[in-house]
Amino acid sequence: MLKNLSKKQRIIFVCYIIVAFFITQFIAGFVFGVVSALKDDGNLDTYSILILSNLLNIFFIKNIFSKYGINIFKDKKNKLLEILVVIIISAIFNISLGFIINYFKLSTSNQEALEIMMQGKNIVYIIIGSAVIVPIAEELLFRGVFANLFSNKKINFIISVLFFTIMHGPKNIIEFIPYFLMGILFTGTYFYTGSLKLAMLAHIVNNFLAMLSFYFKN
């Protein structure tokens, strides 16, 4: 995706992405900070800040790609069999990981924080936000950008997986493992199929099942 860019162009490209990321955080925080100040209770809707920042990330990243003449959603036409295989593998992965987490009573601070944010939210809003918007934004960043930084695919694979894992804020090795495995699944899907859309689909399926589990658990 970035293979036609020179080394200098790639560095500038990444700088654009980093700046855009911080701008989105500021804008989302500012908007909802003002809204919360105007509300009687003064409560800050952190979940909506998360969703808005991811929407802005999608907008900025897509436009940065367009600036370099790259259509991020233009990849090969996916066959129905490929789509079904990705859905099935992603579902099996999520169910298996969920079983292990529940069996050993494991939890991550990132997941706990997210569940607190989602308390009292409508299930449709949760699914649109966490199972559609967030996966698309994260795949644009971690697979669209970080998985295409260098000419060496192995290095790109490692960078993509590690950045995805670290950005989810694991505080110990137990919290590191689930996100590391998810990073392998999504990056593996992208590298094996060559399709960013299928990587997004794998992420969407995983998050969709996780959100359903959260909703029915509560």
End-to-end C-alpha gap: 41 Å
Instruction: Characterize the largest beta sheet: strand count, sense, and whether it forms a barrel.
Output: none
Number of helices: 8
Order of helices and strands: HHHHHHHH
What integer is the average pLDDT?
A: 90
| Global shape | globular
Low-confidence stretches: none
Count all strands and give the number.
0
Share of residues in helices: over 70%
Radius of gyration: 18 Å
Number of domains: 1
Structural class: mainly alpha
> What proportion of the residues form beta strands (DSSP E)?
under 5%
Describe what you observe in this structure.
The chain crosses the membrane at residues 12-35, 47-68, 80-103, 123-142, 154-170, 198-216. This is CPBP family intramembrane metalloprotease. Residues 123-209 form the CAAX prenyl protease 2/Lysostaphin resistance protein A-like domain. One of its GO terms (biological process) is CAAX-box protein maturation. GO terms for molecular function: endopeptidase activity; metallopeptidase activity. This protein has 218 residues and is mainly α. It has one domain. Helix content is 78%, strand content 0%. The chain has eight helices and no strands. It has helices spanning 7-38, 46-67, 80-103, 109-118, 123-145, 153-167, 173-193, 196-217. Helix 2 packs parallel to helix 5 (123-145), helix 5 runs antiparallel to helix 8 and helix 7 runs antiparallel to helix 8. The radius of gyration is 18 Å and the shape is globular. The model has no long low-confidence stretch (mean pLDDT 90).
Short description:
This protein has 218 residues and is mainly α. The protein has helices at 7-38, 46-67, 80-103, 109-118, 123-145, 153-167, 173-193, 196-217. It has one domain (7-217).
